[in-house]
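The data layer described in this paper is built around a simple, fixed record for each protein. Such a record has a labelled line for the sequence and another for the backbone structure tokens. For reference, a complete record is included directly beneath this paragraph.
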Amino acid sequence: MDTLTALTTRVSCPRLAEPGPSDEQLDLLLRAAIRAPDHGLLRPWRFIVLEGDQRERLGDIMEAQLLEEQPEADSRTREIARNKALRAPTIIVVVADITENHKIPAWEQMLAVGAAVQNMMLAAYEMGIGAMWRTGAMANSNLAKSMLGFAAKDQVIAYLYLGTPAIGLKSLPDDTPADYLRQLP
């Protein structure tokens, strides 16, 4: 698949099954990620690749974050939170390790990491790997960031779920760029 085809046809895949990406594919995904634009060459991206039982540890973090928000959560709600980490065979936690008090503002550092995630999604699509970019409350939780080994200043940009598409890929509306163009006021 050429780059323009990937860019113009890529879709997210919310239902993922085994197998996840191979070690070689993971290496290619991460190589694609670190080629993202990066104003100031700060290299703010950090990655945690979770597979197998490591996903259960992420599930524990998801449950802890839930209990921080909802201390009275019942066992069913807690189980649902834990099981979110088992929705895909591979999860890459993508974090912007923010360099504070730098001429490159934090928002630009976060955009660079967002571009890294998009590069991984495009590379995954080209390789036939299903991908789903997830965030939610876990992305903004200082408790979760701490349990993942990051500081409050850092920002989780994505929980990138990867695996074999378990269902057909959804089709997107047939938009055109004209639908989003505006004129200078």
